[in-house]
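Hi support team,

I've been running sequence recovery on a batch of backbones for a student project. Most finish fine, but this one hangs at about 90% for roughly twenty minutes before it completes. I'm not sure whether the input is malformed or the queue is just slow. I've pasted the structure tokens below so you can try to reproduce it. Let me know if you need the job ID as well.

Thanks,
M.K.
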């Protein structure tokens, strides 16, 4: 949601960045549409746990390297992004984590609300 691509349309780097990111979305759509994957609360809990491990690793790496990987470092991105509106570090990290949790919850919500119905025993075959 907050890319800071420093290349223009004429650069292969621009297209590589977007192609690799769109492949993630394509894989998720494939899993749902073709493989009939249906996420559960357990899957969401695992995603949250892995995300917090990622956050811990990114915070540690940023502290050691002085970088801003995952936008959770002390610095701000080189270009204006929504991260600028989340306040100063380290409070910004709390907001990023809360927004991530909210996003995962919203992504799971349709699967909780629109559960497929089991066929009744008297259904016509």
């Amino acid at each position: 949601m907050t890319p800071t691509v420093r290349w223009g349309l004429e650069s292969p780097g621009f297209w590589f960045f977007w192609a690799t990111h769109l492949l993630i979305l394509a894989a998720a759509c494939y899993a749902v549409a073709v493989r009939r994957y249906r996420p559960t609360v357990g899957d969401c809990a695992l995603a949250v746990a892995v995300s917090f491990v990622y956050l811990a690793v990114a915070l540690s790496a940023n502290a050691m390297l002085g970088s801003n990987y995952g936008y959770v470092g002390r610095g701000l991105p080189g270009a204006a992004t929504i991260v600028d509106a989340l306040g100063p570090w380290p409070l910004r990290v709390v907001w990023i984590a809360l927004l991530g949790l909210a996003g995962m919850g919203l992504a799971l919500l349709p699967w909780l609300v629109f559960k497929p119905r089991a066929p009744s025993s008297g259904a016509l075959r």
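--
Follow-up from support: It reproduced on our side and the slowdown came from queue contention, not your input. Residues 39-113 form one domain. No action needed from you.
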